[in-house]
Amino acid sequence: MPKSIEMFLRIETSYPGWRNGLEWLALEAYLDFLTKQLHEAELLFRDKAEQEYKKECDDVIRISREQGLDPREDLAVLRYEYDSQKKIEERHISDKAWCSFLPIVWSVFEKKYLDFLRWAHDKHNPGNEFKKHNYRNKINLTEQLQFLYADIGIGIFQANWDYLQGIYLLRNAIVHGNGIIRELDKEQDRTDLLSFVDSHINLHRDGNVIVLGSEFAEEAFSVCRSTIKELDSSLVSHYYGE
Description:
The chain is mainly alpha-helical. It has one domain (16-240). It has seven helices and two strands, in the order H-H-H-H-H-H-E-E-H. A two-stranded antiparallel ribbon has the order 1-2.
């Protein structure tokens, strides 16, 4: 079996694997960029928020003095409200960044998976059109992806399909429902996503709103990339052997 992209290119330049690594490298670079930018954004937010808090404190002290009142109680309330709201807004900064990243990860994963399947289908079934919507009415998308692989006639591809389905539903909630689970159209999808979020250590929810951070984004990226790498290796092994 070819051990590198360069060796494989000598065998067949139409194979989609040679582009696979570049797309994941681009996503990895974007992941690093987001991480660094988030850190800078959080520092900038904290600095501006602290400046705003000090202005509010000055106003409270000024008004209290004008009225001959002790400002300490009002300042204590202001501090509590400030700390609570700052924590929420810092989380929102992170949420928005990672909610923008996850749909891109899924988009690359689905595209690459179908690219590989289309190549294998054309190789195994020349002359027959590859139809990715044969199983449109199956229970979920990842089940469709499994059936499409089986249709080629080269066996079954094993992957962490339950986890991948969770990423897919999470992507749908973000893209179509602004991260709100109840906005998903199908009741079964809502139930499945609730179960996925509640059972996952790196995912949380505030009522029906999904809360995710860098840990889950990195994990989802890793699972999607490794799945495509395994699919790549599986097809190379099947068609070209050792």
